[in-house]
């Protein structure tokens, strides 16, 4: 597992994720001790020479499940003290994993309505013991107390390879001793596939017997089959419809992310003698110029007047634009340039730009602008000229 056990004693500081979540760490350590994966606590170091590696907390991106991780790649950039992972040969631990395409190929081979069963080993790596002579290399320290692992840990370079030997042995026994038609695995996840005319219940019974005889625990809530549709490696395999598709929750996440990054288009226009208006996703506004902008065609530039409805739109609808990218379509090229740069030499225009920027910060949206020829900006043009009948038609 590790090329040498003769290492100088070194204690590394725990990671920030552990130090900021002490209650979570304490609870997870208690569970590891209760299950017999971790020995301790000890007030004094249990070995003469030992290595304390940092512990951290890894959280599932979508499940939110928190897991205790041992950082065996620490210390980093330390010539005097190599990390535990530095002492494990990369080539010896290299391996290839099953692909979802491999499962699809078997289903295509067996045909429509193939039978599927799925199994998941509980506590995965922790089912494999560490050689006692290497226990001193897998120590942790928490709240001034020492512990050491006696089972494979997450964070160790060789853990996946070692555990995979157990998984391969299970597959070999199933295929050669009990004639299971086809079995695939990715570390602790197993999938069996049987032809439509085979007895899927037999395969399920055989696999359950193998796990029980070898005293390997499986997650009952993840044990499924025989069925014609299940999720494996994050993809739904449906032998009845002959489909491989994403689960609905993943589709929803993709659509949510798409909605968050997609550009929302917004059209505005201003008439120097009439007023201003804007249109966005079926909603619209229009108004004549307020009293504090008297004689707009003589006092203010068209760049200012065209920017005005853009700012109004941000005030009205900014709360709907959170995490969105807003693209303002405007038929004044000077205004487009000002919005894209975010600045102008004109003090009056800068007052509007500051207001627009403030709205973007307040509601958390990103904005830009693009020029649209006047003849293509017909809806906003009608609003800015207060021509409601023309807008409605």
TrEMBL record:
Position of the signal peptide: none
Domain Reverse transcriptase: start-end pairs: 1-237
PROSITE patterns, sorted: RT_POL (PS50878)
The protein's name: Reverse transcriptase domain-containing protein
Record organism: Mytilus galloprovincialis (Mediterranean mussel)
């Amino acid at each position: 597992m590790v090329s040498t056990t003769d290492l100088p004693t070194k204690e590394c500081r725990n990671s920030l994720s552990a130090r900021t979540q002490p209650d979570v760490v304490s609870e997870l350590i208690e569970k590891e001790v209760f299950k017999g994966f971790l020995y301790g606590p000890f007030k004094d170091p249990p070995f003469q020479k030992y290595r304390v590696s940092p512990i951290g907390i890894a959280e599932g991106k979508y499940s939110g499940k928190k897991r205790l991780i041992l950082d065996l790649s620490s210390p980093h950039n330390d010539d005097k003290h190599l990390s535990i992972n530095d002492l494990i040969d990369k080539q010896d631990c290299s391996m290839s994993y099953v692909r979802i395409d491999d499962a699809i190929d078997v289903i295509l081979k067996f045909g429509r309505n193939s039978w599927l069963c799925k199994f998941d080993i509980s506590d995965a790596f922790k089912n494999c013991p560490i050689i006692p002579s290497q226990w001193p290399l897998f120590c942790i320290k928490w709240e001034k107390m020492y512990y050491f692992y006696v089972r494979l840990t997450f964070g160790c370079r060789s853990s996946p390879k070692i555990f995979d030997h157990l998984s391969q042995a299970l597959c070999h026994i199933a295929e050669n001793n009990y004639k299971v038609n086809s079995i695939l695995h990715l570390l602790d996840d197993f999938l069996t596939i049987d032809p439509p005319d085979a007895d899927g219940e037999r395969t399920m019974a055989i696999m359950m017997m193998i796990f029980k005889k070898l005293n390997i625990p499986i997650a009952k809530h993840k044990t499924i089959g025989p069925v014609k549709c299940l999720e494996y490696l994050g993809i739904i395999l449906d032998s009845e419809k002959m489909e491989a598709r994403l689960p609905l929750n993943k589709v929803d996440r993709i659509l949510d992310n798409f909605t968050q990054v997609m550009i929302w288009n917004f059209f505005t226009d201003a008439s120097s003698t009439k007023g201003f208006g804007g249109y966005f996703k079926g909603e619209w506004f229009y108004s004549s110029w307020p009293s504090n902008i008297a004689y707009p065609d003589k006092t203010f530039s068209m760049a200012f007047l065209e920017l005005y409805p853009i700012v109004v739109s941000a005030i009205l609808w900014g709360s709907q634009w959170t995490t969105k990218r807003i693209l303002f379509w405007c038929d004044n090229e000077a205004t487009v340039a000002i919005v894209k740069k975010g600045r102008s030499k004109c003090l009056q225009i800068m007052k509007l730009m500051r207001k627009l920027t403030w709205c973007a910060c307040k509601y958390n949206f990103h904005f830009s602008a693009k020029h649209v020829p006047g003849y293509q900006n017909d809806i906003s043009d009608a609003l800015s000229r207060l021509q409601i009948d023309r807008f409605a038609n």
